[in-house]
Amino acid sequence: MHCKLIGVPLQDGASQLGCEMGPSALRTAGLAPALRDLGHQVTDLGNLSPTPSDASPHANPTLRNLPVVSGWIREIADTAYRESAEGMPIFLGGDHALSAGSVSGIARRAAEAGKPLFVLWLDAHTDFHTLETTTSGNLHGVPVAYFTGRPGFDAHFPALDTPVDPANVCMIGIRSVDPAERAALNETDVVVHDMRAIDEYGVAVLLGAFLKQVEAADGLLHVSLDVDFLDPSVGPAVGTTVPGGATFREAHLVMEMLHDSGLVSSLDLVELNPFLDERGRTATMLVDLTASLMGRKVMDRPTRRY
Fold first, then answer.
1. Distance CA 9, CA 24 (A)
2. What string of DSSP letters covers 24-56?
3. Catalytic entry in 83, 250, 271, 277
4. How far apart are CA 60 and CA 132, in angstroms?
5. The domain 2-293 belongs to what CATH superfamily?
6. Domain boundaries in the chain?
7. Is 193 a catalytic residue?
8. CA gyration radius for the chain?
């Protein structure tokens, strides 16, 4: 695999500063060497910068940094489309607003290839607010609503070429949802597995069903991994901690199953805030999880004939 590392030092979508250091922390934690050790070709494309934006003002007075986030989304989407022609783009965040760009750009590429795009959203939050419904004004809470084509983004975010079918979005690890998001999700076919579902059925059953859906449709799979998918005891370096998240082993199992599926074509690593980390352990954890996704195993498990 040709892995393309794309730094996105975006922190304008969040209220707490520090995510702009995320790409540097992932590089320092050894992401590129870890991928090379697994036999992959790695190209580091450096960091992106936002393009100038002509985003119109919005009536919601709580919105933070709308023009600059809109500019980020345009630049990320263009880069995602361009770099997904060959190889596997890995977006190093940066807050989760970056996925409004990465997913929309990859969706355009998938449409040109005649394939449906599926999105695995590993997060404590659904990020399904629109510009009208958000009360915090933090735009890292809107990307899924945007890339699935919810109304209200025209003239404020870049025009969406190819919305992702909500039925192709699977969320795992959810445990913090605002009432407006819950009501909106109930109107869609987005699959939401909260932590209770993981407790009851296990993450392997839930993820396995989604991967079968992707395989049956011959689709491309984009994975968006938010640090707060993890329990804060495992990944403390995030400004939106929610107790009761995925364990160390649950997270690695997800990555190992994704590797075994052979379906993943692009990846986001988001919401890493090194300012809140403990001696770099969350950045190191993300590198280890990415290595599991890309083929690192404790033991090979050959197929046996009986």
1. 9
2. HHHHHTTHHHHHHHTT-EEEEEEE--PPP--PP
3. 271
4. 6
5. Ureohydrolase domain (3.40.800.10)
6. 2-293
7. no
8. 18
**Spatial contact of 175 and 124, defined as CB atoms under 8 Å apart:** yes
pLDDT digits (tens, 9 = 90+) for 228-283: 999 999 999 999 889 999 999 999 999 999 999 999 999 999 999 999 999 999 99
Token digits of residue 248: 């160390």
| Residues 90, 261: Cα–Cα separation, whole Å | 18
Between β-strands 169-174 and 264-270, what pairing exists: parallel, antiparallel or unpaired? unpaired
Respond yes or no: is residue 178 known to be catalytic.
no
| Residue 227, both tokens | 């640090």
Contact predicate 78/39, CB 8 Å: no
Q: Residue 140 and residue 132: Cα distance in Å, rounded?
A: 14
Calpha distance 35→227 (Å, rounded): 20
Q: What CA–CA distance (Å, rounded) separates 62 from 264?
A: 36
Q: Which of 20, 83, 140, 231 is catalytic?
A: 140
For the question of residue 226 being annotated catalytic, the response is yes
Continuous H helices in 84-133: 98-112
How confident is the model over 11-18, as a mean pLDDT? 95
